[in-house]
Amino acid sequence: MRVLITGGAGFVGSHVADRMVARGHEVVLLDNLLPQAHGTDDPPAWATVHRLVRGDVRDREALAEVLRGVDVVCHQAAVVGHGIDPSDAPEYASHNDFGTAVLLAEMHRAGVSRLVLASSMVVYGEGRYACQEHGTVRAPRRRVSDIEAGRFEPPCPVCGAPLVSELVPEDALIDPRSTYAATKAAQEYLASAWARQTGGDVWALRYHNIYGSRMPRDTPYAGVASLFRSALERGEAPTVLEDGGQRRDFVHVTDVAMANALAMETPGDPGTLTPLNICSGEPHSVGDMARELARACGGPLPRVVGGARPADVRHIVADPAAAKSRLGFHAMVTFADGVKAFATDPLREPVG
């Protein structure tokens, strides 16, 4: 099978490329080496072992070239993370949404009908919550006054009682709460419309908190694990917002690569976008990640400073059942083993 991986020189894309080649497939990587993710203008060594085309998913001519003979597209290219502030919105929308629209149009012209889309847990907004009296409820937006007072848990919107965090299934409400989240939701809607119009099939892999080797570092677009690791390398204590109790599902990048491989090897339902949570099934708090990584690095324990960024959510942990049922996917790397390895994993060059 011949596979086009957009963003193929990136954190996840490069691991997907390695996994697909190891499974006997041919890969073509397309990447424009965005400075937000790459510390230098040169591609990283781990990407140059594959056929790498430097180009942009918004460039129709570049896509027409790399789509020739392709059986399935694995779309990883995106601007990711919280970014700086709302002034980032045009760049997010251009790369993530306009880029996806151009890619889908060129796939149609090239007769490529299968897509694996890198989506994200951020499309859910807050996770799933239940009130003891009122059952499953939609958590209200957290108030700045509550966060400043150290009240981080969202209350029941009906009675105000504390809520209990539950696993989020794929049929949960789409409720993006940041620019990045809005663009990932739009990618899913665009791909879903394309599937209906063309009869193509789409797996939308909703990644949870990915960590592992080749992560970008020293950038506001990086994940929290990378930010903690960068601080520890500078001899500084990792800074943890809120009280550190916010729960996430940290999933190792090699497991995410396997999920992509299984999705590319498994035809989806024609005319349909099928979302799947890609997670470890082993929730931990952000504080757990900071503490365990500090111990593994032999660095100072984290500073818990309170507060929160405007788009931060309290808890979001995933139900892994659908990915196991549909793809046979289950994570292999435990939290303890993954964090221990991450302490010395190679990261990307610092972004200037």
Word description of this protein:
It is a single chain. Helices cover 34% and strands 20% of the residues. The longest helix has 22 residues, at 89-110. It is of the alpha/beta class. Helix 1 links the parallel strand 1 (2-6) and strand 2. The model has no long low-confidence stretch (mean pLDDT 94). It has helices spanning 11-22, 45-48, 60-66, 89-110, 144-148, 179-198, 224-233, 253-265, 286-297, 321-327, 335-342, and strands at 2-6, 26-31, 51-54, 72-75, 114-120, 128-131, 135-137, 164-168, 201-207, 209-211, 239-241, 247-248, 250-252, 272-278, 284-285, 303-306, 317-318.
Q: Could you write a compact summary of the structure shown?
A:
By secondary structure, the protein is of the alpha/beta class. Helices cover 34% and strands 20% of the residues. It has a seven-stranded parallel sheet with strand order 3-2-1-4-5-9-14, sandwiched between helices.
Q: Quick one: overall form?
A: globular
> What class do helices, strands and sheet pairing give?
alpha/beta
> Ranges with pLDDT <50 over ≥5 residues?
none
Oligomer: single chain
User: What can be said about the biggest beta sheet?
Assistant: 7 strands, parallel
Cα radius of gyration in angstroms: 20 Å
Question: What's the order of the H and E elements?
Answer: EHEHEHEHEEEHEHEEHEEEHEEHEEHH
The helix count comes to 11
Please tell me the overall pLDDT: 94
**How helical, in percent, are the residues?**
25-40%
Distance between the termini: 38 Å
In percent terms, what proportion of residues is strand?
A: 15-25%
- Give me the side-by-side strand order of the main sheet: 3-2-1-4-5-9-14
Query: What's the total number of strands?
Result: 17
